[in-house]
Sequence to fold (301 residues):
Amino acid sequence: PVISVYTREFETIFESVSSDMTMRLVDDNYDIIYSTNKDEVGTALSGDIARLVYDRDGSVSDGTNMVTSVVCNSSNWRIICSMPVTVITDDIRQIQFFTHAISLGLLFILVIFGYYALKRASAPISTLMNSLEEKSEHDQLTGLINKLSFEKLVDAMILTGSQGDVVAFIMFDMDNFKSVNDNFGHSAGDDVLRKFAYVLTENFDKDALIGRLGGDEFAMFISYSAINADAARLRTQRQLADFRTEFDKVFWEYKEKCNLSVSVGVVLTDSLTTEYDVLYRKADEALYKSKNNGKNRDTYI
Fold:
């Protein structure tokens, strides 16, 4: 009856024991009273396992089996569990595999996270650098390219031009601009410079390169393709005429009160071997002649 009670209890307790593990209840003679391997019930504990656990509590291994022995009552009955060492090592390998897999997965996640974090962190820096670069190339008041950038771009356009193209280098200088600042203040003068840049961009070819060289001095470079020098001159004259008409409309108040006008110097050439410095010097010479000959006029060289 006692064995029957133990059997029922152990079947309940060990119902979910792994199939790789054998659970036994042995008496003080190491005879098996209960076992999850029912074929062992009523037999003596096998010699290999008995030697490992004889009068010993705790866990021990002989390289083949891992055996644990625990005394469970005053009669020295014992619960003995055994499992093949290979099962344990397989489990350890699986744990190691999953540990490595999880580690690699976490590393991958960290790399992706780091990449996007760095990208998000660098985006404002990149935007700032682009903004600084753009500011270094453009005039902050008018938005046109500055003198240094204008020079570099003109040289680049000359080098990449086609033989036979006609180029126009035009310089603009506002007459009596100082009077605007003196009578209306520098904020009005700044407004005149901004509007002047707008009138230039609106009345010449869209691919014309326009820059502010400093103060109220502006310059323009236009490359004409598939037309001769005479046709290029007529086209330039027509665009300058349209520009002057628009200038008079926009700045009529300053024309009346400050005698504001524009002097222009123009160089037209079909030689693409000409350098920026040569074009600038000739256009500046033409501009000087416009100034000396009464201002508010165009002079061609």
In short: The chain has nine helices and ten strands. The chain has a mean pLDDT of 81. The radius of gyration is 48 Å. The beta strands are 22-26, 32-35, 58-61, 65-71, 78-84, 166-175, 209-214, 217-224, 261-269, 298-300.
